[in-house]
Design a protein that fits this description.
Pathway: Amino-acid biosynthesis; L-homocysteine biosynthesis; L-homocysteine from S-adenosyl-L-homocysteine: step 1/1. By secondary structure, the chain is an alpha/beta fold. It has 18 helices and 15 strands. The mean pLDDT is about 95.
């Protein structure tokens, strides 16, 4: 296929929205300006599996400006903005393979389409592209110079591959950059998840019991935003250190089996499977609303909910009502997929600015340094992380101090005491 999208006639709306997002992406814009002049990616083929949004479009355009030949597919069947896909094809000449609501078979066919282009560099969000590349196209994987991974779930999967010795090329864990996870995960996921729940349900969050499963950076962001909306926030955790942090941050901490009895809203954000499952559904209130902001739709045990239900219907866009045998109703948002991208628009452009600046600079880094790297998962180089932070501060009109020569000497010596 040359490309596979829903409707090319949506291109004008997509172009306007891409341009709107670009206004809030000054760091990526500055990189694009340099890339346009230097063409550091000239002749390089890049296959990307990302959420097809306005922010992603600006990354793809930046890579093209750098001289790359770019192919794009969706990292989630429900996250694609069809108008963005059409604009990328029509105005920017990018082959896109993504349709919002595509079934699983189509999703994997789209992954295969971008793999068949025999990329030099891959960009992934969740590691489905890289795992499919390894499983089905070993010969192509052998020739890949390196890749980047955008999200926590994907990094976990890729580290497991590296540990087993099956990873065929180096990976830069963009998710682990400070300018990514401390901002994108916390502020981006926090705001966009609350936005999505409100759009989908039009329910009042103030005064509710809001359960957040997982207190990583994403969970912290959601918990903070929910508290800001006036909810009583309950955190569930399996990690004693994170649970202690949540308690010290002022949240109620308890096991999910107890939280399930109290919650009005539930959001899973753990990266694990079956976090909300049958025993939790059995004790939930009538009208409980459950959603997921982790990468895959396995955090909520939907098959168990199906088994417990005697009826199911869609009551609003992205809201499915499951009626249980005892008459209680449980509402599942966005089919258990990423709620912030399925029923809203994902993270604001200003925070994705840093995440995608990392992606662009890491593509350049891999091209220059792949021969020095092992088949392993690496952190983003500190120099790139700091460069992006400085550029972001500059775009916000913020200046900071620099160390004096005396301070540099003090911090690098051991002789001076009190």
């Amino acid at each position: 296929m040359e490309y596979h999208i829903k409707d090319i006639s949506l291109k004008e709306e997509g172009k306007k929205r891409i341009e709107w997002a670009e206004k809030d992406m000054p760091v990526l814009r500055s990189i694009r300006e340099r890339f346009s002049k230097e063409k550091p990616l000239k002749g390089v083929k890049i296959s990307a599996c990302l959420h097809v949004t306005t922010e992603t479009a600006n990354l793809i355009i930046t890579l093209k400006e750098g001289g790359a030949e770019v192919y794009l597919t969706a990292s989630n069947p429900l996250s694609t903005q069809d108008y963005v896909a059409s604009a990328l094809v029509a105005y920017y000449g990018v082959p896109v393979f993504a349709i919002k609501g595509e079934d699983t078979q189509t999703y994997y066919q789209h992954l295969r389409e971008v793999i068949k282009r025999e990329p030099d560099i891959v960009i992934d969000d969740g590691a489905d592209l890289i795992s499919t590349l390894h499983k089905e196209y070993s010969d192509i994987a052998q020739r890949v110079l390196g890749g980047m991974e955008e999200t926590t779930t994907g990094v976990i999967r890729l580290k497991a591959m590296a540990k087993e010795g099956v990873l065929k090329f180096p990976i830069i864990a963009v998710n682990d950059a400070y300018t990514k996870h401390m901002f994108d995960n916390r502020y981006g996921t926090g705001q966009s998840t609350i936005d999505a729940i409100m759009r989908a349900t039009n329910k009042l969050i103030a005064g509710s019991n809001f359960v957040v499963a997982g207190y990583g950076w994403c969970g912290k962001g959601i918990a903070q935003r929910a508290r800001g909306m006036g909810a009583t926030v309950i955190v569930t955790e399996v990690d004693p250190i994170k649970a202690l942090e949540a308690k010290m941050d002022g949240f109620i901490v308890m096991p999910m089996i107890e939280a399930a009895k109290m919650g009005d809203f539930f959001v899973t954000v753990t990266g694990n499977t079956s976090v909300i499952r049958e025993e939790h559904f059995q004790v939930m209130k009538d009208g409980a609303i459950i959603s997921n902001a982790g990468h895959f739709n396995v955090e909520i045990d939907i098959p168990a909910l199906e088994r417990l239900s005697v009826g199911k219907r869609e009551v609003r866009s992205f809201v499915e009502e499951y009626q249980l045998a005892d008459g209680r109703r449980i509402y599942l948002l966005a089919q258990g997929r990423l709620v912030n991208l399925a029923s809203a628009e994902g993270h604001p452009a200003s925070v994705m600015d840093m995440s995608f600046a990392n992606q662009a600079l890491c593509a350049e880094y891999i091209l220059k340094n792949h021969h020095k790297l092992q088949k392993d998962v690496y952190r983003v180089p500190e120099s790139i992380d700091r460069q992006i932070a400085h550029l972001k501060l500059k775009s916000m009109g913020v200046e900071i101090d620099s160390l004096t020569s005396e301070q540099v000497k003090y911090l690098s010596s051991w002789e001076v005491g009190t």
